[in-house]
Amino acid sequence: MNLVYRSTRNSEETATASEAILKGLTNDGGLFVPDSIPKLQVSMDDLTKMSYGEIAYAVMKEFLTDFTEEELKNCIRNAYDEKFDTEEIAPMVKVDGTYYLELFHGSTIAFKDMALSILPHLLVTSAKKNHVENEIVILTATSGDTGKAALAGFADVPGTKIIVFYPKAGVSPIQEKQMVTQKGDNTYVVGIKGNFDDAQTGVKKMFSNKDLAKEMADHGYQFSSANSINIGRLVPQVVYYVKAYATLLKEDVLKAGEPMNVVVPTGNFGNILAAFYAKQMGIPIGKFVCASNENKVLFDFFQTGTYDRNRDFVLTSSPSMDILISSNLERMIYRIAGNNSEKCAEFMKALTTDGKYSISDEMKTELNEFFGAYASEEETSKKIHDVYTQTNYVLDTHTAVAAVAYDKYKEVSKDTTPTVIASTASPYKFTRSVMTAIDPKYDAKEDFELVDELNKISGVKIPNAIEEIRSAKVLHDTVVETEDMEKEVKNILKF
């Protein structure tokens, strides 16, 4: 039976999985959610014997019910291949008693590759299934990682164009170089004079602009999204939490049915929501530790039940989490509001008009499995330094935020449950922050000198993603004001 997807803001708007992937956002700016989270139809014992691709199929077939077995397996085969630089996809590394799930071995060395290597295939398949004649324009805002991973995934994919907006002064030098050197006749990268929230808000406005949609259609185009607001991005992220549990079973860290905890550094709430969905599917997860940096809007929400974006935006050393509007939290709000789309729409309207909303005590109780913690810049830097000096393992800034949050959780809870930290990026992506945390003397060096120094001290091979941009030519240099984003899209599409 096909799983029905519904708008978080209007329960009357429904879609199949492929329709939801194609649209990205719902007509009223809401997000698609499945009517129920399906159960995994595989035994724990079988999970331990399965490859990443096999686990991906077992998870995704339950969500993407209008895809045939052949269609879905073809998408998975094309996604999880030699693009990843380790034999095992999403390997787990034990460091000082904690398990780091390394999600950064894809072509752009960030966890976004785990989903964005398959999304183009899901999207093209969805377009064929729904007899779409228009060219699909992937419109995406990025805080640093989604942009490059989406660009790499969609570069030269027939029937698509991809336009990525990023905060010009809000990403790391390596992140920016990765994006602005992207090849592909269908790729466009635009810096904005604003922060990530400005970029994300601008993109959402274009998605919900009915006049623009008509203009697009008249010129043979339609929008779709590569952000985690797209259910086709979120579902593949569930897979690696299932894989993590299977790994702990295989290594006899856990017996079937015993829980693991997960710690996720998050800004947009998608990555931790995927872990929550894994639990709903039947994976025993005890606690979800939601790790924030100094933009601690999610931490404050878990503490108080009030989501308030009215605060200063802080540029940190973990820029992929520099976010004040956590889009994917809307899916969780919808759920804890009893799948009440009217109530959810009210909260989201309040967020737009007043910049904040407060949930009821009853709703707050529904979030008991979550623990919010945050790391200051000083704590993040110290964690990178301490883990390196004690173990020789190098954390990137985002993973360090998660490690600090986990320390705080352990201190409060005394919980000794085996815990998996989602390691979301390679330290090579944030070399300056990482190297100066290890020793301030490195700050005097150039960015690519730091890459070589990191290679020396860690013994970890420099990823191809870094080697190929050392001398790559800048191909994208457009920068616009936030209010000119729509104008720039029309300019790119020539209408």
Question: What's the short story on this structure?
Answer:
It contains 22 helices and 16 strands. By secondary structure, the protein is of the alpha/beta class.
Structure explained in plain terms:
With 495 residues, the chain is of the alpha/beta class. It has helices at 17-23, 44-47, 52-63, 69-79, 112-116, 119-129, 145-154, 173-180, 196-207, 210-218, 231-250, 270-281, 297-304, 329-336, 341-353, 361-365, 377-391, 397-413, 431-438, 447-458, 464-467, 485-493; strands at 5-7, 14-15, 32-34, 92-95, 98-102, 135-141, 160-167, 187-192, 221-224, 260-265, 285-292, 306-308, 356-358, 370-374, 419-423, 478-480. A 6-stranded mixed sheet has the order 4-5-15-10-11-14, with helices on both faces. Strands 9-6-7-8-16 form a 5-stranded parallel sheet, sandwiched between helices. A hairpin with a 2-residue loop joins strand 4 and strand 5. The mean pLDDT is 96.
